[in-house]
Amino acid sequence: MNTMKKIFLLIAALIGIQTANAQGTIGFKGGVSGSTMTKFDLLDNLTPDFKLAPAFTGILFYEIPINENFSIQPEVSYLNRGFRIDEKVDIGQVLSFLGSENSFNVNADLGKFDLLNSYIQVPVLAKMKFGEPGGVRGYGMIGPELSFLMDSQLRANFFGLYKNKFDMPKGIYKDVDFGAVAALGVEIPVGPRFQIIGEARYDLGITRTLDIANFQLDVRNRSLSGLIGFQYQIGAN
User: Fold this and answer.
1) pTM recorded for the entire structure
2) Is 92 strand, coil or helix?
3) Per residue in 170-226, pLDDT tens?
4) Does the CA dihedral 68-72-76-82 come out positive or negative?
5) How far apart (Å, rounded) are the C-alpha atoms in residues 85 and 101?
6) Considering only CA atoms, which of 86, 136, 126, 142 is closest in space to residue 109?
7) What gap in Å lies between CA 173 and CA 47, rounded to an integer?
8) Whose CA is closest to 54, among 229, 230, 228, 226?
9) Alpha-carbon distance values, 15 to 10, 68, 85, 125 (Å)
10) pLDDT of 83-131, one tens digit each?
11) In angstroms, rounded to a whole number, what is the distance separating the alpha carbons of residues 114 and 54?
């Protein structure tokens, strides 16, 4: 409940900012993300490679202009972070072990396992635009973010035949994660106040994400997202 109260207060703050400013831009971006986690040395030797786990992400934002080329952009976003383990087995080695004289190499999927933590994120980004106002403009953004953990799931797909979801126990991951965001994008005008946007962004977890007593394990979140969306300029021009 405390996490939800913080989220509602942050959303209310964004609405208050919008009301207080004569001009600004509101918008939405959605797309796909691929996430993974760093592994500490012991885990690196004991487990398979962590691959990018695909998921959906959605972002509401409000851009506060400082001048024609620079603005501050608070956001509220939903993002799944975690990793994928994609295991394969060499059928030829298995048959050889069982006594077969046939020699061939065939890899078969054993299963895919996605560990995904759902977060509500609140970045506050500095945004620098490039190009002539009123035309197609590129931009870059960078800034800090807070992520609030909502739930954690293990999604298992055995041999492509059996799929299931399992809720992970609470207390494994920290409830709040501090990180940073860097993004590059383009704004394409389709009207006096309306733009279509495309964006690529990288989320870097700075704090350790595991919450295990007496251990300081160097496991941090990483994610890369591709987004498309729209934005609308409000206020007087």
Assistant:
1) 0.74
2) helix
3) 777 788 889 999 999 999 999 888 999 999 999 998 888 776 555 556 778 889 999
4) positive
5) 31
6) 86
7) 19
8) 226
9) 9, 22, 41, 17
10) 777 765 444 443 443 344 555 454 445 567 777 889 999 999 999 999 9
11) 9
